Amino acid sequence: MEEPTLVNSVWQQMIIGQHHGLPTRLLDWTHSPLIALHFALTEGNLADLDKHDCVVWRMDMRDMNKNLPQKYKDALNAEKTFVFSVDHLNRVVKALAQYDEDMGDCAMVNIEPPSVDQRIINQYSFFSVVPSGIDCVDDFLREYTTNTVRFIIKKELRWDARDLLDQYNVNERMVYPGLDGLTKWLARHYYVKR
Fold it and tell me: What's the Cα-to-Cα distance from 189 to each of 50, 77, 120, 180, rounded to whole Å?
């Protein structure tokens, strides 16, 4: 992928890197509870699907925004939104070091990725940019948000929940459009449970 604006924004660099599998400080979210459930129920090794419980978080962006420094709140209010775009965040802060200083350990920004391909669109993606001051996101959500809910899916239910998602056409073919998604879906569809 050639993206000429990539050099202009650390936020764009992180989003594109994350999109292609690079570990970043971005925390993946989705606007769709079914997409979130799909990812919670996904395992690299299908034999592990019933080995442990999984979790889906529900987070309220407005609730998270109440902790932001004033200049970030003002920027969101000026645009009448509750999530930053890459360009919008770039106008507020350009450097990761300044962002970390601004956020400390009690706030983080939510950013909507540009629709660079169908996968991002189908996943209804957005990200939280985790500042270096936050060591544990679970602790942050517990301490600094009031409307966050954690849903635990018991390991005994994971295969059944996965089958129900297939009936709603929420599967690898939809989440990863193209040959990658088809092959992931086929591998799971024809997997033989022992």
Answer: 16, 46, 23, 14
